[in-house]
Automatic annotation (TrEMBL), chain A:
Pfam family, one: SBP_bac_1
Signal peptide: none
UniProt cross-references to InterPro entries, sorted A to Z: Bact_solute-bd_prot1, SBP
Annotated organism of origin: Paenibacillus selenitireducens
Highest classification ranks of the organism: Bacteria, Bacillati, Bacillota, Bacilli, Bacillales
Protein name: ABC transporter substrate-binding protein
SUPFAM superfamilies per UniProt: Periplasmic binding protein-like II
From TrEMBL, chain B:
Pfam families for the chain: Sigma70_r2, Sigma70_r4_2
Transmembrane segments: none
InterPro entries xrefs: RNA_pol_sigma-70-like, RNA_pol_sigma-70_dom, RNA_pol_sigma70_ECF_CS, RNA_pol_sigma70_r2, RNA_pol_sigma70_r4_t2, RNA_pol_sigma_r2, RNA_pol_sigma_r3/r4-like, WH-like_DNA-bd_sf
Tagged with keyword S-adenosyl-L-methionine: no
Domain RNA polymerase sigma factor 70 region 4 type stretches: 168-220
Protein name in the entry: RNA polymerase sigma factor
One of the protein's GO biological processes: DNA-templated transcription initiation
Source species of the chain: Paenibacillus selenitireducens
Amino acid sequence: MKELRFMTEFQHLQRLTDAKESFERANPGVRIVIEQSTDHFESNNAYQSDEAPDIIESGGWSLFNNKDMFVDLNPYVAEVDGLEEDLYQGPMRVARHNGMLPGLPVDVSIPLIVFNKEMFDRAGLAYPTEDWTWDDFIELGKKLTIRNEHGVASQFGFGIGVDIEWYEPFVFRNGGSYLSPNGSTARGYVDSPATIEAFRKVIDAYRVHGIIRKPDEPSAAGQLHEGFAMIFGFMWFTGDLIYHKIDDKFGVVGLPKMQGGDQSNMIYMGAAGVTSKSKNPRLAWEFLRHYIIERHSWPLPLTRSQAEDRGLTGHRLWSRYMEELDHVRPSGYYLSEKWNSSRQLINEDIHRMILEGADVSQTLRSWTRFA
Amino acid sequence: MAFEAEDRASAASKVASVGMASFDRDQSLVERAQQGDTEAFGELIEQHRNKARGLAERLTGDPHMADDVVQDALIRAFMHMGSLVDTSRFLPWFYRIVRNQANMRMRRGGPHRNERPFVSISSPETNGSRVDWEDLDSILYYLARTATDAAMREQDPAEHLLRKEIYETIHALLHCLSRKERDIFKAYFFRQLSPDEIAEMYRMTTGSIYTYIHRSRQKLRNEHIRVTLGLLPEKKGGSGLARHKLLDLRSWQAEPPVMSTFISSIGRMLASIGDQREAAELMGVSTFAFRMKLSDKTTFADGIYVFDWRATLQGLMREIGYEISVLCGQLADSPVPLLGAVERFPVVLRIEEAVLPFIRRHIDAGRPVLYFDTLVTRPYVHEWSVIYGYDDRVRVVHLTDPIRPEGKTLSYDDVINNPVRFLAGFGSKLEQTAGETARRPRETGTREQALRTIRFAIAYAKHGCEYRPRTSYLNYTSGLAAYDRWIDHLRSPHIAPNRYGMGQLSAVYAEAKRYAALYLRGVPLEGEAMRLAMLASVAYEQAADAMAELSRLVPFIRTSEVLPPDMREVCVEQLEKAKAFESAAVGYLEKSIAVKAGEEGSRQ
């Protein structure tokens, strides 16, 4: 009896358990043991120990930037007829940003603009289309923000949280970036005119146009699905709309075009990889393939064939997310662990820009120290 | 006119107060930077870089040279930060360094006259690609690339000198590697052997050769940073510089040791300086007896550790009459636990000089150091501990460990490579408040302190913890609602409850509730208010019993297993029981506070 130990940082394990059972049925000499870990630190400790797991599934990417920790899956992928062509290349491009393929992406999510059709109808506005620009977006946002005589909004034009990572797609699309392509520096990138301009536009959306709720601003708009006309909606948000059967009220469109003409978007994903300490790497790969490629284990699949099988490519909302997968590129947090670790220090500065009017270009110049 | 004068005065006072705030901020940044906090140094520099550059440009008359001058001045400032005695004089001190650097450059005759940049020596064979002489990787790459046409380059005296210098530098750095690492490294970079060839030579796998090379590069990179910053290691053995000191860590009365190691470590630190506190008092005053927090993901135990470490520690120590200095940070290139608590820590370097002086300074003064240990003995994953000694000769610190009553040692490298850097030591006020002076507020303020704690307990139980991580995917539920979250995790068909976390959560919170009961029995209230506090104490005791039963069902042992389904409902029963008792306890506390408020109202 061969045993494969699968360590996961996730808590929803039903799909994994199902894959384990079907794999064990098909391979009577194999037993999969599922283990849990709280975070990357514990997963890393398990890997460093004498009892390293065969597979580690992590919700982030930092473990997979350690080139020694995982087996390169590229040769295994190449062995399977037609698999490479079937894979969505966007997430794979990000997963291979260091050259090797340390794991198969899981829990993939990307943002689009989810809009509330009823709010557009009430305002007599046409729904946004794929060719819309940042200026169109701001004008719509202004028309869709409703404030009372005290300035308290019952409806905001746009809903997005304060996070350096969520503004990055707008920076990309304006021709900027936070870091150099290899992640070694922020100098000349985060302080470049294109990045500063994109950032200023985002901050203006809070401060000048008032279409986004500022941190702790009094609001009568309720939750994102209640009082926001346009939402920076990740796949998880749209999944919730469908789960709660209120998706009919919403439409979805790509992010607005900006001056740089770039179509890039960000992507969040974790991965499951075969550890370099596994005594059965081929068997571990076979299980990964079964779990992630053959079975319908994650909301957004990695292959076009699975997307078609599940009807996602024809779905009114999901089809747009699947299309967008081709436009993703590695964000700063994939490229530099220092940048990734400084996320909340940077967010504190963003709060200062939004709430206190801290100078945008000066603040961005100071961020060169974070990479 | 009078109004105008007032306005001006008010404006001037505003400017002055802004100036003072910025001055205080600078001073605090300087103090942090002196302790090796690179983030603080970065902030300090960001504030003054433009002015320093302006000064350098005025002095040199060359904008490009001004950049170099400021860069050099920064490195020197960081190197010598520790020598700045009066931290309020940072700016004039820094400007003096800029002036000196500018003068030095000007004496050399301006840019590129007597010091050609290395890149300008590069021959056409390098295809004009730049070597970054600040970056060890770039130097190593350059070495590897040019080794093949070295003979030709030897004919150029300048190139020859340059190569000689580089080799000497690299060789000087190589002492940080073990013998085997050094041999493999030399074979790869100097003899240009492929990893396959080296593997064959040493009868090892190619993979392990890559690991060796990777590890060696990491070590060399760190050593390079140390050398660049002038942080040369003290000579080892027999030089007279190597020091050691071991404090007599007096035992703390809490037996068995308190499982909330944040509190037990503080208790031990206080005991070691002669301030023996009851465990129940510290658990109560710190409010740890009344806290319960659970991850929204599943029954992971990380909620125990997610609070504002700095603010909580400083608040508690202030409450009991001490000042404390804190050194904190996170490493960027290593997985960090407890992101919810650590997320706003600055990224720091793995350099000994950023940590060891802090430990030596406190231990030499007879004061132990609070330390967050990520190499704690199982079943724990990471806990707070107390460093009570160091030994430069064998490069170890002595510290406590919840599983090893006899204590243990960690190497300096272990301490430096800890991905979470959190150390704290008693501040200067300790000497001033020792003895009677320190005890006075305890006697006069105990009642107010108890009322503050009870009010906190009520607010926390009903509304949860004020501290919330900014990282969007990290959410926790606290107070009475944490019971519901816990029960939801156990009953949800979609979530796998974590068995290890269940074990630690139930053990730690059973004990906390026991201490809540104990603390309330000793609060200095009277009459009806005290009777109600006693009723709350009994209810907390019963909540603790239910949690202890849960702890018996799911013991705190190190395991990666998922909780078996048949255990879930049995655990839910105990949690429901504990919640009912704690809800009753909080009700009694609310009534007790209301009675107290009524009494005070009628007195007025």
